[in-house]
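ok, trying the design again with the full structure, not the truncated one.
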């Protein structure tokens, strides 16, 4: 029998999860555990070394997070998703995943403070530089791209007053790369 294709609205409620086999419960259970039990040492080793899929520690993944990740992937048409605890973590994971020492990021100079700190203070410690540009002129991003540019980063709302506080900080920061 062909797998039924659900519409977007139904997927928002049900994608990435099947009803609980033991109880028939439809709602996603919240697994309030930090660790999981293994059937034997070999299973624990295989899961911990990512040779097999399974749960070993909640900070890495757990069944509740897995449903959220699967649901987001289904809604976005992706092959997978990763749920993290904050936007800062999502930004750091994304940038660290695609950059290496010697690479560069072009970013709007109107970043939220946490993002600004990541790009101007933290990433340079790992050999990744950032060129900050004025997003008022979108062509500034294109002009700043070089061969080593791996990402262009903007935030729809960077900080409450959009430009003044970041402009002052970036102008005085010894680690900020000047706009080209």
């Amino acid at each position: 029998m062909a797998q039924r294709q659900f519409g977007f609205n139904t997927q928002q409620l049900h994608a990435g999860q099947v009803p609980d086999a033991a109880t028939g419960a439809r709602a996603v259970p919240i697994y309030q555990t930090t660790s999981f039990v293994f059937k034997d040492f070999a299973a624990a080793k295989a899961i911990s070394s990512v040779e097999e899929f399974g749960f070993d520690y909640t900070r890495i993944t757990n069944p509740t997070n897995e449903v959220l990740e699967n649901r987001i992937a289904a809604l976005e048409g992706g092959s997978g998703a990763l749920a993290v605890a904050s936007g800062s973590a999502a930004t750091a994971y994304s940038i660290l995943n695609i950059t290496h020492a010697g690479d560069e990021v072009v970013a709007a100079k109107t970043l939220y403070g946490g993002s600004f700190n990541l790009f101007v203070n933290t990433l340079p410690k790992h050999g990744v530089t950032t060129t900050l540009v004025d997003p008022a002129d979108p062509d500034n991003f294109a002009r700043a791209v070089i061969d080593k540019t791996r990402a262009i980063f903007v935030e729809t709302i960077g900080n409450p007053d959009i430009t003044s506080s970041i402009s002052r900080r970036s102008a005085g920061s010894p680690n900020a790369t000047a706009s080209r």
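Keeping the full-length input from now on. The first strand starts at residue 104 and ends at 108.
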